[in-house]
Amino acid sequence: MRLVYATRKSALALAQCRAVVAQLKAIHPNVDFVEEQVVTSGDKIQDRPLSEIGGKGLFVKEIEERLLDERADFAVHSIKDVPGIVPPGLALVCVPRREDPRDVLVAPRHGGLEALPSGARVGTSSLRRMVALKAARPDLNVVPLRGNVDTRLRKVDAGEVDAIVLARAGLVRLGLEARATEVLEPDVSIPAVGQGALGLESREEDEATRAYLAPLHDAETGICVAVERGVMIAVEGDCRTPIAAYAVRTESGRLHVRAFIARPDGSSCRKTERTLQWPTSEADAATLGQDIGHHLLAQIS
Ligand SMILES: NCc1[nH]cc(CCC(=O)O)c1CC(=O)O
């Protein structure tokens, strides 16, 4: 048996898919896993914010084309990069256990958010992170900064900016978690939808591939991600809307959700925090998320 997986070429994408494939190999020693590297439109355009160039779908489009025309059998994505609606014929068939979902600050010369001097330049092109930074420290100067994790680290090291905000999960997967100078708790920066989670995508009808991937699925992460993606689907169609949603299972087995959306210019911002009954299926989880998203949308418009 031979399974081809398509991946982006960035260090993070390669680290992620190879870690997943190593786990799959341990379970299926007789399967031959073949890597196919793909350059996506999102990788080619590095100088403008994603919200301007058409959104995160740009990182998955070319990979999904390969799945659809059967040049590849599965892909490993950061769920954060996967749009709410997956193209017909494809499905997110497996969501492994989530890594740390939180954002971190990397400020080599300063340390934490409170230690940054007034007017310090913080580089991020994420509207969500911009809103969180401005709420915590209105005196900071948030400047656009894109690029792979390594590019952004180089820019803060070179002094182009005083600090950057990254996902802790990405640093952990690259073995660079020591670069974080402060972890931003969800009360300061609500994580992005799906942050820290991976999604394995394959053709919906390809039962054989789905069966090979299934052992890596984590039901609890799957439910949390379905809630968060539900919030996103409710407001989708506009990638300029800053949005965050973070769901966890509490110690008492309930569902705890934090979410916010804002107007694209950050002017009007609504946050919500709810504790609900744990959903019994991903479909129910998605519906709960959509209810939260619609409720927030009604409040800012
Ligand atoms: N394209 C950006 C992206 N997509 C996924 C991650 C981090 C890993 C994750 O959230 O699972 C990152 C980098 C970042 O935000 O710092």
Automatic annotation (TrEMBL):
Residues 6-210 form the Porphobilinogen deaminase N-terminal domain. The keyword RNA-binding does not apply. Keywords: Porphyrin biosynthesis, Transferase. Transmembrane segments: none annotated. It catalyses: 4 porphobilinogen + H2O = hydroxymethylbilane + 4 NH4(+). One of its GO terms (molecular function) is hydroxymethylbilane synthase activity. The keyword Phosphoprotein does not apply. It is an enzyme of class 2 (transferase). Residues 223-297 form the Porphobilinogen deaminase C-terminal domain. Its EC number is 2.5.1.61. This is Porphobilinogen deaminase.
